[in-house]
Target: Resolvase
Amino acid sequence: MTKTIGYIRTSKNNQNLGVEVQKEALNRYKIDCFFIEQVSGRKENRKELNKALEVLEKGDTLVIYKIDRLGRSTKQLVNIMSELQERGINLISIKENIDTSTPMGKVIFTILSAIAELEADYISERTKEALAILKENGVQLGNKGLDERTINKIKKLYVETDLTQKEIAEKCDVCIKTVYNIKKRYHLTR
Model:
């Protein structure tokens, strides 16, 4: 049996009127369970929204009063909407007349997703360009790497002692993964 979950959010504790207005609008959808919180939409960690998302299953519906109740940033909205779509959960936003169980609702959702994907591509492109410029200007990216002296010390300790990789890592002030990588790269055996 499918469920219809209502999510209500207001920004401040004194917005009880906002809760009542939203609840009244949502009640037209035969809500099985309400999740209500009073927290800023810009906050990433919204406990009641997370609880609502946990309860929802394929075929269920999440009903909200207005799309900005889910989040204030495009990134937040797209992440939530993508999760709902992947899990087969419908979304109804009353004020915007969005219902992803209908063909038009799916189109609107697809357009919003495409815009978000375009934004993500632009961010990736700008990041790559910035890294290329840094590299051209001689800025070293990533780890500096190990000097020969440390590499030789690790090799010697590995081959000539019975120390564990963890002990070697501690002696050489590197992580265990570094010892493992050197062992593998130089085909070290005991």
Observations:
- The chain is about 50% helix and 10% strand.
- Residues 4-119 form a domain with the Rossmann fold fold (CATH 3.40.50.1390).
